[in-house]
């Protein structure tokens, strides 16, 4: 009891925040969750928080307004365009013009494939925006929205594609699809688990959609082949190129 009280004293438990299910979506990669969490708290090192340094406070994307969390997610024309493309792919009808509105729109007690996919996409988008911002600031390199999306395995990989197919709305992916290079074994294992788990969910959706008829056998066969291909890819026995 003493240790428990001491632990509670040094680490008190606060009230549950409403955005917790969105920020800490279990299907997202941990690094995506972490950057989204910092963005929600307003703790990213945006230029408005670095005024003690002799730096240009304007946004690295539009070069017009001051770089703040609100501007970066998603008031800026560049980041807003990126988020609009992703919403269009995922058939998100709500406007969600800011990060707070996106958190409210994606905060639902439902945990089906559709909502989990959309939460994953928000975390990926915030991560990519911050990554691209840092490249522009520190590496003096820049990419357009279409180029960045086309080169990102997180937005064009089989993970997002499979999840989008689970709700019956195929994603219009850029062509040609990129080859995924240099991903660690941990990253590939994470993607594999997400893919296989979503495959099992899709089996249930397909069966209920077809009323358990023979039409779902094709879905089962394709998903089984997909799972085998991903497992072989993970173990290094085959190379999947696009």
UniProtKB/TrEMBL annotation:
InterPro entries reported for this sequence: RVT-Znf
Span of the signal peptide: none
Domain Reverse transcriptase zinc-binding: start-end pairs: 4-83
Record-given protein name: Reverse transcriptase zinc-binding domain-containing protein
Taxonomic source organism: Populus deltoides (Eastern poplar)
């Amino acid at each position: 009891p003493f240790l428990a009280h001491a632990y509670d004293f040094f680490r008190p438990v606060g009230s549950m925040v409403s955005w917790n299910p969105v920020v800490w979506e279990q299907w997202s990669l941990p690094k995506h969750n972490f950057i989204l969490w910092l963005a929600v708290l307003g703790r990213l090192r945006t230029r408005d928080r670095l005024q003690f340094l002799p730096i240009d406070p304007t946004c690295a994307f539009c070069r017009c307004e001051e770089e703040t969390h609100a501007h970066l997610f998603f008031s800026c024309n560049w980041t807003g365009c990126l988020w609009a493309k992703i919403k269009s792919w995922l058939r998100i009808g709500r406007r969600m013009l800011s990060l707070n509105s996106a958190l409210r729109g994606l905060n639902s007690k439902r945990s089906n494939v559709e909502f989990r996919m959309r939460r994953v996409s928000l975390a990926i988008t915030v991560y990519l925006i911050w990554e691209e911002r840092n490249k522009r600031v520190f590496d003096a390199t820049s990419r357009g929205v279409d180029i960045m999306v086309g080169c990102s395995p997180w937005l064009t990989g089989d993970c997002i594609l499979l999840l989008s197919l689970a709700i019956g709305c195929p994603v219009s992916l850029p062509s040609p699809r990129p080859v995924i290079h240099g991903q660690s074994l941990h990253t590939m294992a994470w993607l594999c688990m997400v893919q296989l788990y979503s495959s099992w969910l899709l089996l249930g959706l397909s069966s209920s959609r077809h009323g358990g008829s023979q039409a779902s056998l094709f879905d089962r066969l394709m998903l089984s082949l997909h799972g085998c291909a991903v497992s072989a890819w993970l173990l290094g026995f085959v190379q999947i190129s696009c």
